[in-house]
């Protein structure tokens, strides 16, 4: 199927989740997936660390078990809807803050580990990923994944756009006082890269963190297709049209017009410019 003629209906879950309660969060996932599927969604996107909780400190080690990915895959299979699930995943060197892209039949399509750890909280709990991507063709739309702080680095989104992504999925746990990111930065990222972004944030609080909500789906031209409020749980829907993304890129050719070969000059330029020819202004 040509990606220029394909579309993907996505659902973004804005939720508080339940701290440290894997089974409770998997039940919430099933409920959201059931509603999203009934309304025609092809893919559900959860917030960051939705299955386990994010700011739960030492409890994280107990709930991120070796069999957790398998339990999540089983839950997605029972829900019957492909899902991008934010969760902790155990690695030999520690716990990764991950998103698992799981198809409706429970098969794992791809996994991404958060590459940019935010502050002391992230660094105390997680080990960082070391690669971006991959870019995956899903229902004819090329998508990739980032997690929360990752999207705040322009080079990450630019790299994925240059690799061919048309949609970036961003599970998030954005907290106060960073409302600006959710309210403004996503539209800039989408516009400057001509790429759609789905931003799934938490609401409520965990420990000292108060989450800012404001989940959104932004199209490649910077227009907001759907958005949620600051405090309430919600389920957003929008259709990402691959052809519209490509048309946006032809109208606003940032990716074609960029000049990555330019270097920063190490010294000021001192050679004079040629003098202007002002002969046409002289009185003869």
TrEMBL record:
Gene3D superfamilies referenced in this protein's UniProt entry, alphabetically: Carbon-nitrogen hydrolase
Region described as Disordered: 261-284
Recorded GO MF terms: hydrolase activity
SUPFAM superfamilies (alphabetical): Carbon-nitrogen hydrolase
CN hydrolase domain boundaries: 8-242
Family designation: Belongs to the carbon-nitrogen hydrolase superfamily. NIT1/NIT2 family.
Name assigned to this protein: CN hydrolase domain-containing protein
């Amino acid at each position: 199927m040509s990606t220029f003629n394909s579309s993907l209906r996505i659902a973004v879950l804005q939720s508080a989740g339940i701290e440290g309660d894997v089974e409770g969060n998997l039940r919430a996932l099933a409920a959201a997936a059931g509603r999203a599927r009934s309304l025609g969604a092809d893919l559900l996107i959860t917030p960051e660390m939705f299955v386990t909780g994010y700011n739960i400190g030492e409890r994280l080690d107990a709930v991120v078990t070796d069999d957790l990915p398998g339990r999540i895959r089983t839950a997605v299979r029972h829900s019957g809807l492909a899902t991008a699930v934010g969760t902790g995943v155990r690695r030999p060197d520690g716990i990764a803050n991950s998103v698992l892209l799981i198809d409706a039949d429970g098969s794992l399509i791809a996994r991404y580990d958060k590459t940019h750890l935010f502050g002391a909280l992230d660094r105390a709990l997680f080990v960082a990923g070391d690669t971006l991507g991959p870019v995956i063709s899903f229902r004819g739309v090329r998508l990739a994944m980032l997690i929360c702080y990752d999207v705040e680095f322009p080079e990450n989104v630019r790299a994925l756009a240059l690799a061919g992504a048309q949609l970036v999925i961003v599970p998030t746990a954005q907290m106060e006082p960073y409302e600006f990111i959710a309210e403004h930065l996503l539209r800039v990222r989408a516009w400057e890269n001509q790429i759609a972004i789905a931003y799934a944030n938490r609401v409520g609080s965990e420990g000292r963190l108060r989450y800012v909500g404001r989940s959104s789906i932004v199209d490649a031209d910077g227009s907001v297709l759907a958005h949620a409020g600051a405090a309430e749980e919600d389920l957003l829907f929008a259709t990402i049209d691959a052809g519209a993304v490509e048309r946006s890129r032809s109208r606003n050719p940032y990716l074609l017009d960029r000049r990555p070969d330019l270097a920063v000059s190490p010294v000021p330029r001192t050679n004079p410019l040629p003098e202007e020819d002002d002969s046409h202004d002289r009185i003869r």
